[in-house]
Design a protein that fits this description.
By secondary structure, this protein is mainly α. The protein has one domain (6-143). Helix content is 41%, strand content 10%. The chain has 2 helices and 3 strands. The protein has a 3-stranded antiparallel sheet with strand order 1-2-3. Strand 1 and strand 2 form a beta hairpin. The longest helix has 56 residues, at 6-61.
């Protein structure tokens, strides 16, 4: 039986270490991607809950809540409609809110999703950017439909 030389053993050892490193790096990349998808799901859920809170507020008060309410992450300023004003799970920043000039009684919340390939971005019409200064890539629009007065 032929014995490997020291040089060959070192080369094999280096290859094994490199392969182990690549496998570990791949696992870390997958975990980071999974966490980003989770945060994006949280963001979408947050703005949908905010949209519903605005609808419920409007039904009770016949007006939109003051936009300043949405500047206070974690506040209970919109109780009982939403327990606390949610904020981005990674940055802690607010979700911008604004009324839509071209649509009566419409408003939008904006989000910056980490997964720029999310199909919801195109559906929301934000593939070229949207919201203040076009820096967001996802939005949720709400519209208050008023009952017709007789």
């Amino acid at each position: 039986m032929k014995r490997l030389g020291d040089s060959a053993a070192v080369k094999i050892g280096v290859v094994v270490v490199i392969l182990i490193g690549l496998v570990m790096a791949g696992k870390q990349g997958i975990e980071k991607q999974r966490q980003a998808y989770w945060r994006d799901g949280t963001r979408k859920d947050d703005v949908n809950r905010l949209r519903q809170a605005v609808v419920d507020y409007f039904k009770d008060n016949e007006s939109f809540p003051d936009e300043k309410i949405f500047l206070s992450c974690g506040s209970g300023h919109l109780l009982p409609y939403i327990k606390a004003i949610p904020c981005d799970p990674m940055t802690g920043e607010i979700y911008p809110f604004q009324s839509v000039e071209s649509c009566k009684n419409c408003y939008e919340f904006y989000v910056k999703l980490e997964n720029s390939e999310d199909i919801e971005i195109k559906k929301a019409g934000c593939n070229q950017g949207c919201g203040p200064e076009g820096e967001y890539n996802y939005k949720v629009r709400g519209q208050i439909v008023l009952p017709k007065k007789e």
